[in-house]
UniProtKB/TrEMBL annotation:
UniProt keyword annotation of Magnesium present: no
Domain Methyltransferase type: start-end pairs: 38-128
A single GO molecular function term of this UniProt record: S-adenosylmethionine-dependent methyltransferase activity
SUPFAM superfamilies reported for this sequence: S-adenosyl-L-methionine-dependent methyltransferases (SSF53335)
One Pfam family matching this protein: Methyltransf_11
Assigned keywords, A-Z: Methyltransferase, Transferase, Ubiquinone
Highest taxon above the source species: Bacteria
Entry-linked InterPro entries: Methyltransf_11, SAM-dependent_MTases_sf
UniProt record, GO biological process: methylation
Protein name in the entry: Methylase involved in ubiquinone/menaquinone biosynthesis
Length: 248
């Protein structure tokens, strides 16, 4: 699995869902103007952009050098650093809130990453995360088509946080209590099938890796099955994520 892709490729693949999700997630986390917020695993900046738009004082971190370069060019006035959730390079109690959107499922040690988010958040501040639900998340239509042809294919439903209650378990393992976990959702309209399909060919994440491992005939079969299920467009993908928050 790789996220060593251009920010534009990632944006076309996931940004179309991450940008509207950022609005819902920020509201869920109850952060806003004047809050000092850390965006953990910022990627190309979907959440950072929305946090800045509501007046939060944002700091961002991500392990990808290409994303960091893009973030620094996009947000020259924001402190953007390269690093991982498990080893956050900030003093304790630095932020009013630490948020991780669509990141927990790719942390090497999710409980350790959330524990670090809590460490750098002040007492009474908020730690919040969200992760796509396995069966009904943004990538579910792709994996549904995969399973028509390859029922045993491992999708993203087993990733950390991708089922009800797992984020709460991870928060508890990180030492956080009184966790509020809820389903949040966005609807994204795709004008054509090709607009939906093409970003899967960019090799982003588990879905991109799966598609890249197929031969030309296999990719053509999968594309045909997906088109039969979704139609030529327009169509709407209703994507559900699990979100969790807790006070430090």
């Amino acid at each position: 699995m790789t996220f060593d892709v251009s920010p534009d490729a990632y944006g076309r693949f996931m940004g179309r869902y991450a940008e509207p999700l950022a609005k819902v997630f920020t509201s869920f986390a109850a952060v806003g103007a004047g809050d000092k917020v850390l965006d953990v695993g910022c990627g190309p900046g979907a959440l950072t952009a929305h946090l800045a738009s509501v007046g939060a004082e944002v700091t961002a971190i991500d392990p990808s050098p290409r994303f960091i370069d893009a973030m620094r060019a996009r947000f020259p006035d924001i402190d953007v650093r390269r690093g991982t959730a498990e080893e956050l390079p900030y003093p304790a109690a630095t932020f009013d809130a630490a948020l991780a959107q669509l990141v927990v499922h790719f942390m090497v040690d999710a409980a350790a990453g959330i524990r670090q988010m809590a460490r750098v958040t002040r007492p009474g501040g908020v730690v919040a995360t969200c992760v796509w639900d396995g069966p009904t998340g943004a990538l579910a239509p792709f994996w549904d088509a995969v399973h028509v042809l390859d029922p045993a294919a491992q999708d993203e439903a087993l990733l950390s946080g991708a089922r009800r209650g797992h984020l709460t378990e991870l928060f508890a393992a990180a030492g956080l209590r009184n966790v509020d976990e809820q389903a949040i959702a966005v609807d994204v309209v795709h004008p054509t099938f090709d607009e939906w399909w093409e970003p899967y060919t960019f090799g982003v994440g588990p879905a991109g890796d799966y598609l890249a491992r197929l031969d030309d005939a296999g990719r053509a079969r999968l594309q045909t099955v997906a088109r039969e299920r979704l139609g030529d467009g327009p169509f709407t993908v209703s994507a559900t994520a699990w979100a969790a928050r807790a006070a430090v």
